[in-house]
Specification:
The chain is α+β, with helices and mostly antiparallel strands. It is built from one helix and two strands; from the N terminus they run ββα.
């Protein structure tokens, strides 16, 4: 999938090694722990600029 505007791809992964701190995401190859939907939206906006 992607964000609504198609600018940021969203892909499921099997393991980031952050099980104790999940849900987790990988943003520009940087692991991010304890991600909420709101935080994910904010990070996507920041990546796009």
């Amino acid at each position: 999938g992607t964000t609504a505007d198609g600018a940021v791809p969203l892909e499921p992964v099997h393991c980031l090694g952050l099980c104790a701190c999940g849900p987790a995401a990988l943003v520009d190859e940087t692991p991010v722990a304890r991600v909420t939907a709101e935080r994910l939206e904010r990070m996507a906006r920041e990546v796009v600029g």
